[in-house]
Amino acid sequence: MAFPADEIAYQERGFRTRLSDAELNKPAANGTMTKMLIAFEHGPFSWEVDVKNAHGIRCRDVFEAIYKAFNEQLTLEEQRLVRDRRAVEDAFRLRCKLAPGLPEVERSFGWKRVDVLLHRTVFRGLTQPKSGGDWVLNLGTLPHVPGVS
User: Fold this and answer.
1) Which region holds residue 140: left if phi is over 0, alpha if psi is between -120 and 50, else beta?
2) How far apart are CA 109 and CA 53, in angstroms?
3) Is the dihedral of CA 3, 24, 137, 50 positive or negative?
4) Whole-prediction pTM value?
């Protein structure tokens, strides 16, 4: 969520492994889908992620669309909805520190949607109601692994 698709990794037994191009280029769903609308709600925030690929949506397309949607600066109205400003500021500072490139440049852009998620930026999958319709984005935090800091 906080970084581009090419930097996505999964964590297993304390080790991080980046997804390969082959994994990122797999179809995002069974069958060929060319459009996908993903809904996301977090506290007072509600956003949609629109994914399109005329040749069939791949996992990469989904991750890139999610990253793009959450990499947007908060609007003034969204900033007013922030309940815990200190926690968002802490998440913002950490993201800037970890950002590829210059942290000062990233800081100059200010708070982004990803910052209001605090540390719930781990992709936990997409779900869709049995009746069809919009997909739902599920996020979580990194699990604590004993012996790993």
Assistant:
1) beta
2) 29
3) positive
4) 0.88
